[in-house]
Amino acid sequence: MYLKHILFFCVLFSLNANSQLLEHDKDFRAADSLLKESSFSAHRDNYFLTGVPLNSDINRNSADVKYQVSFKQRLTSKPILGGFFPYLMYTQKAFWDIYASSKPFAEINFNPGFAMVRPFYLKGGRLTYGSISVEHESNGRDSIYSRTWNMLAFSLKSQVSPRWTVGLRGWIPMVDKEDNPELTKYVGYGEASATYQLKPGRWSADILFRKGSGLINYGSFQTQVNWKPYKTENYYLTLQWFVGYTESLIDYQEHKSMLRLGFVLKPENMGIF
User: Which residues does UniProt assign to the signal peptide (predicted)?
Assistant: First the structure.
């Protein structure tokens, strides 16, 4: 009788131990997806694009170059605080009136931040990154040309299938209303993104939708098609269309529609958000 009870508890302990080992193995494999990447790596897309407006006259002053430099630094090789990895991030986006006579920079937006990233697997083995970040974005100017805001952001990004990666991101904005009247109305409180591998290793498409706080008048939509000329290289030729508000901070109240062509360097993995 006692032997049966002992055997029963041994089986329960074994099942529980195996379950814990499986969960530990999942956590290890999820963390390994971040550790496979160099500690210093691309954060968002790095690109150099040139284009023209679709909703106004095309001339030397309306055509431009848009480029972005974005990188991140993982601060530890081991997770802390419940499996989170700490990151420093920096993104700089510039709008260059390269076709104008004096070739001035119309705007440069600076976006440093700090993030805690937790890799894990959803049901079905879908690799997912959850993150909490504190970020600042401004154009580095003063007086009436100053544009600045801060945010506390939360995001989830998941590889839901071999071809689809989707993301949701929301933020609590902190805005100086004197310098940036109604900026929150235009930047909104969140965004959704998706990447689809049209032909894995060659063709992909990206979509980014940001909802403004207005009912229908604010927000933005950006989509692009990417073609990789060489499978062994990590750069793409890209056709990008942006329509909406807040492509740049200086003109956040101005509705724009821009079609641009150029090249982009993407993060090696799916990116943390």
Answer: 1-19
